[in-house]
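[stage:ingest] chain + small molecule (flavin-adenine dinucleotide)
[stage:ingest] validated
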Amino acid sequence: MQHTVLKSCRQCLARIHTSATSFGNVELTSKRYPHLRRGRFSQLTSDDVTHFRQLLGPDRVLTEDLDGYNTDWMRSVRGASQLVLRPRSTAEVSAVLRHCSERRLAVCPQGGNTGLVGGSTPVFDEIVLSTSLMNKIIALDTNSGALTCEAGCVLEATDAYLADHGFMMPLDLGAKGSCQIGGNVSTNAGGLRLVRYGGLHGSVLGLEAVMADGQVLDCMSTMKKDNTGYDLKHLLIGSEGTLGVVTKVAISCPRRPNCVNLVLLAVKSFEDVLATYRFAQTQLGEILSSIEFMDAASQECVSNNLQGGCRVTHPLPGHPFYMVIETAGSRDTHDEEKLSLFLEEGMQRELVIDGVLATDTSQIKSLWQLRERIAEALLVDGYNYKYDISLPLHAFYDIVTEMRQTLGDSIVTCCGYGHIGDGNLHLNMTSREFDGDVLARIEPSLYRWTAERGGSISAEHGLGLKKRDYIGYSKSPGAVVLMRQLKRMMDPHGILNPHKVLPEES
Ligand code: FAD
Ligand code: 2HG
Ligand code: ZN
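[stage:predict] done
[stage:export] tokens:
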């Protein structure tokens, strides 16, 4: 099964998942969000199940033990699907969707189920279409670095394959052990190295998808440049399973750097975080590969909440802010010298209070845990109110302070961290259990606050179910109308991932 996320921390995940938030205890989405109405889709019949068994064989049509597919990684939403289909090929996805379209059966496409906005699980009884068995690497062009693979390839495994050939995936996320390339493309995932390698709208060269009626849309290409007509792949990138099921992806992969170095910095104020960010851009320039920031509350959470064999010991405890800065380049002596100098000068200028420099792979991995495992550590508190916003850097941390004041002791923690190099703040609050009053004090005022500052209410996680009603804070009415028209054209019966991305029409 899935839900491993970070392979080193099964124990902690087991602890999270056997606590108050185990599958069975997660409230049904239809109860938690009572305003949602099941669409006018058909009910699944035994004839449908028989049909799917004929198509896929009995082993790949699941009707029992579906909790892991119905519940999200955060244990925050739970659907009531009675059927999971596990196709192995594009032709099988096509046959499944053709039947679903003819029968008006709703479908929820699912990759690694690591999505954070309630998009990857059914809301009612949608059929789960899992891409997990479509996990073959098809080709790697070692001249250009163009990789072609099936949608179910897991990010970490794909990156390991590329490493053997001197290349790397152009994206990296904490969920790499479980998330799949089809899910990454469908959410337009950002992650830890977007600052260096850019987003998926840039690195995806081509894709194949199956449309709602079962037709295969072939937009596969491994060329960097192709200006022939409308570039339809961009409609699928970030469409969160609502416009088609991505079955294959061609992606441009950079050369793996010869040397990677990393520093963890302790910083005394957010103003100094910004000054250090600017200083890093000037001093490290072309070798900068990641620049992340974390506040004290997020680090306390990692230090205190992860227990047992996967405990993380903080090397610089007790500081108000932290930054992780990674460099990747081709000459180790050059890069190490640059980074050491940056650290030395940063301390001389009193931008940086303290720092740890890591130059070997295991030290680097262990420092990354302080950043990558925050999401997992937060879940241990109970319920997690998770926000992922873009903001201009001058206003970046203000909302964390404001939220703390607004929510007081009605919450366990409020922390801010994220991809500062991309202007992307991860704002998180936790409480022991889901609390509708806390939610009502956060939404929609947080979205209004973000819009007033010209930010986006979803920087990288998407809208899914949880944020779809607030799309108007980030997109104009005209843009939403055009999105609806596209949805209607590409999925006339609305069977693909209903209740996600676009608000219900009144
Ligand atoms: P799923 O969660 O299964 O699905 C996500 C959405 O895509 C759903 O709407 C689903 O219907 C749709 N979908 C999935 N596969 C397909 C397909 N083949 N065709 C059509 N639609 C499909 N996200 C970031 O952007 N940056 C981060 O740094 C980041 N870090 C994370 C760290 C952790 C610990 C966790 C748990 C999540 C993180 N995420 C991050 C969120 C999540 O991992 C990403 O959104 C990821 O891209 C989802 O991939 P998945 O395969 O798990 O997709
Ligand atoms: C990350 O960058 C992910 O770690 C998750 O996008 C963010 O937990 C979050 O809020
Ligand atoms: Zn992120």
